[in-house]
Amino acid sequence: MDTAIITGAVTPVLCSVIAAVSFIGGGLLTVLVYRILLKRKRLNMIKEAELEAEVIKREKIMQAKEKFYQLKSEHEKIINEKNNKINQTEQKLKQRESALSQRIADSQKDKQEIEAIRTNLKTQLELVDKKTEEMEKLHRQQVEKLEAISGLSGEEAKEQLVESLKEEAKTEAMSYINEIMGEAKMTATKEAKKIVIQSIQRVAAESTIENSVTVFHIDSDEIKGRIIGREGRNIRALEAATGVEIIVDDTPEAIILSAFDPVRREIARLALHQLVTDGRIHPARIEEIVQKTQKQIEEEIVEIGKRTTIDLGIHGIHPEIVRIIGKMKYRSSYGQNLLQHSREVANLSSIMAAELGLNPKLAKRAGLLHDIGKVPDDEPDLPHAILGMKLAEKYKEKPEIVNAIGAHHDEVEMTTMIAPIVQVCDAISGARPGARREVVEAYIKRLKDLEAMALAYPGVMKTYAIQAGRELRVIVGSDKISDQDSEKLSYDIAKKIQDEMTYPGQVKITVIRETRAVSYAK
């Protein structure tokens, strides 16, 4: 075992020597040799470790030197960059200093020039003062000579000259004004016609027949008895809940809903449709369905108002006005749906304002809101234009919008350029062919009222309402009314019609006064 250890730790030659000695001399000698060999090996290992440590030391020193040189170069690079920046800054400062010095020199030079100019001006002013005194002296002398020659004082001559110049200026100004006015009228009439025609061509809205009844169709007449109920309790409950008069007569498969408020008629129609479809018709169910239908209609009104404002590109309107806009869908005026009319007026106003170089968005907003006074929640006695103006003012609309709403029927004075545009577009929308229709009875009554109102004036012989009531021809006696009285009569009739009657568009009053000489040849 000892031999194996030794042979594994030393060279082969020594191992053979050790083996021979150990074989010859015994175990003690073997131990001594083993120790000597171990000592030598330890010394060799120490030497090798020292050599290896020296190599590592040299490598580390070399690495440290390289790191040092690298850091030194980087540090020198940073120092050089900072020095360059400092040099650049110094150069800039020197340039600024030189520029300031140049400016100071220029300012001193300018100051000297200003002083020289000021001295020169002072000298020239003194010369001017002297010459002015001399001119005034000469002027006084000439005035005195002229006064002596003409026999008039200076003030009198001045007044005569001013008066003559005034008369001459007035004459020239009047002729110039007449020329400009004539040319402006020709151009304005042409341009106005062009704008109006273009606006009417671009925009057109649907029209509906105005009525106060809605016909509800049913499948069979048996449903009428269920709607009426025992002793009429169902129909009474339905009328009380909706505020609509329900007429059940002999009309086959139809029930008539009568009310002036179209919103109530629509609620009654939808509620009746749900009741008939469901089949359960009794007072409690009627109240429940009517309440649900009212909520549904209110939501639909708000949705219609929002959709209308989005379609027209109008934003920032108060929610209450949005609800009023939606409510216009269920109102009509002379057969023309109020919401469609307002949309049409908004588009027309926008087009006209753009053609005239005004704000089209403001005009469109005013056109949409001009009839909001026709759909109030209550029924005040104010005209719809004034009521609409107050609503717009209440909900913080701009003063231009408020004035346009209030002035579109001349209830208040127009203070902006948008107001007459809205008024004109309202008239265009209502007066264009096919826009408005009336029921026959109301139409005939309006024509008769027109003729009777004009016939009541003294001197009027005959009256004729023509062109669907848009013109009134008045025949007067030539021996009873003069030409001047004819003009006054035409004005008086127009004023009375405007104050006392309701009509679409405008009515033209033509007073005819003529003398006829009749002879017969026999």
Description:
The protein is built from 16 helices and eight strands. The chain has helices at residues 2-9, 12-25, 27-150, 154-202, 222-228, 233-242, 262-278, 283-312, 319-327, 338-355, 360-369, 384-394, 399-407, 418-431, 440-455, 483-500; strands at residues 213-217, 245-247, 254-258, 332-333, 336-337, 460-466, 471-477, 508-514. The strands form three sheets. A three-stranded antiparallel β-sheet has the order 1-3-2, with helices on one face. Strands 6-7-8 form a three-stranded mixed β-sheet, covered by helices on one side. A two-stranded antiparallel sheet has the order 4-5. Helix 7 crosses helix 8 (283-312).
In short:
The chain is built from 16 helices and eight strands. The chain has 522 residues and is mainly α.
User: First CA to last CA: what distance?
Assistant: 184 Å
What is the number of E strands?
8
Number of distinct helices: 16
**Whole-number mean pLDDT:** 79
**Biggest sheet record:** 3 strands, antiparallel
Report strand order across the widest sheet.
1-3-2
Low-confidence stretches: 1-10, 204-210
Beta strand %: 5-15%
Content-based structural category = mainly alpha
Note the overall shape: flat
**Which percent bin holds the helix content?**
55-70%
Quaternary structure classification: single chain
Order of helices and strands: HHHHEHHEEHHHEEHHHHHHEEHE
Radius of gyration: 55 Å
